[in-house]
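User: I'm preparing a small set of examples for a lab meeting where we compare how different chains pack in three dimensions. I only have the primary sequence for this one, and I'd like the structure in token form so I can line it up with the others. Please keep the answer compact; I'll paste it straight into my notes.
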Amino acid sequence: MPEVTQELTAWRRINLPGVIAGLLTIALPFLGTWWSFMLGTGAVVMAISPFGVEVSIFGEAMSSPLFWWLLLGLKLGVLYLGMLLLTGSVLPVSNRRAAIAELFVQFSARKLLWLVVAFVAALLIFIVLVNHLPGMLGLPFQLQLPYLMGSSSFSTGIEGVQLTIPIFMGFTRAFAIAVIAAVLGIAAWFYQRRLL
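Assistant: Understood. Below is the structure token output for the 196-residue chain.
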């Protein structure tokens, strides 16, 4: 009977938020893009995430092999972090491996949050530049993109003809999963410290 109690106590040492965050982090590179932008009714479509960029202009896909390799490196890095978080969350079951589990969770739990924050910050900087650069450069048109999500329109006049183009942008479900995984990673970091 004491063996059963000891075994149940060992299983309670699993960092459940870390297990879930680790699994979600491993899945993230395969869930698709995090943010989409559409100009017109498909004239320019851009869907991006830290793991991939899909750009289409009038139905013609554009890509860069160098950029693909850089994003592949980021994908592999996030997979590595997810595996470390998952492993570190399960290892406390064995008392002998508690120290290495702590190291794994402490190293990997907060990294996804920084990736999400950096992604949103890069989008904000891009949108601010697009909104203010034409005016600063003295161009004859002005864009007013919504900040991060929403819809608006771009109007310009060409030789007496007024042209209005709709603009749509927004986050995807994959971004919501990334935010959930990042929050669970922070919870796993705190939970791991409580386990020791």
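A couple of notes for your slides: The CA atoms of residues 156 and 163 lie 5 Å apart. The longest strand covers residues 161-171.

User: Perfect, thanks.
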